[in-house]
Amino acid sequence: MRFSEYCVLKIECAIRNWRIEWPLRLFVMVLGALGCFGGVHAEAGSAVDAVAACRAGGVVISGGDTYPPLSWRRGDHLVGASVDMVTEILAGFGIHAKADEGGPWKRVLLRARDGEVDILLGVRKAREYEHFLVYLEPPITPSVQGVFMLKGHEFSYKDWSDLEGKSGSITLGTTFDKKFDAFAKSHLELQPVRRIEQNFFKLEKRRVDYMLAPSQPTQLYLKRFGYQDKIVAAQEPLMILEEYIAISKKSPCIQLKDEISRAMRAWIESDRFDEAMEAAFLNWFKVEGGEK
User: In this predicted model, what pLDDT tens digit does every residue of 143-188 receive, in sequence order?
Assistant: First the structure.
């Protein structure tokens, strides 16, 4: 590790331990107190400028509004494990972040593309996103993608070819991976809908034969909307994908991408994110789980 990198990490730890708002000039004083000014003036100035730019307009974070335990809508804003992690990491830099209400995934992506959203939660890598998003490493969690069918009208599913000749449903804006997206475009009939519960309705009315969706959130919403005994998942998953945090290329916070990535890695490697996921599950069940 370079000496300058060591200094940055020391500074980050000090700031997080204060848990208070701090003026930028204090950031420079901490650098001096840690003996980091010798040879790192440029890096210190750059870090100060990055924090100042990210703080200037207020940071908006967004994501899927039906994706517990990562993010879901409660009232007029998102809550969830990914919201908790990102807001706390930014608070460690003295940056206040506000989670908006999320919304249909395609609309959230367009807002990130246009710079109306700074940080996007729970996004998968896709070629069409690369021109307006920067993905932060490491990925935050794997996500099992399932094939769901109406109970009593199941069909044998072993691989993607079993979906051919049948009609399916997905939530608008959903992507999987390059290989499957290309396969689906050429071989499958997928009908997009705006809300996850619309997939349930179409299955129940037999307007489609299956739906493709992330397994954990879908199981939660099946229970919430009373479909847990009507819709079942195939034993074989569609695939397993990685979920990421991403920053809009139009956001000034892009200058802090390395610092945020380091802090995310610390959360994940120390199991703090697993703990946040567990707490978010309990939170969802307590408040939303009993609703219909």
Answer: 999 999 999 999 999 999 999 999 999 998 888 999 999 999 999 9
The answer to whether residues 197 and 126 touch, using CB atoms and an 8 Å cutoff, is no
Given a contact cutoff of 8 angstroms between Cβ atoms, the answer to whether 132 and 251 are in contact is no
Model confidence pLDDT, tens digit, residues 82-111: 999 999 999 999 999 999 999 888 899 999
E strands, 129-230, are 133-150, 167-171, 189-193, 210-214
- Residue 167 to residue 189: CA distance in whole angstroms: 5
Distance CA 123, CA 133 (A): 10
CB under 8 Å, gap of 24 or more: what pairs does 41-47 form?
43/4, 43/7, 43/8, 46/255, 47/8, 47/11, 47/259
All structural domains of the chain: 3-142+243-287 (3.40.190.10), 143-241 (3.40.190.10)
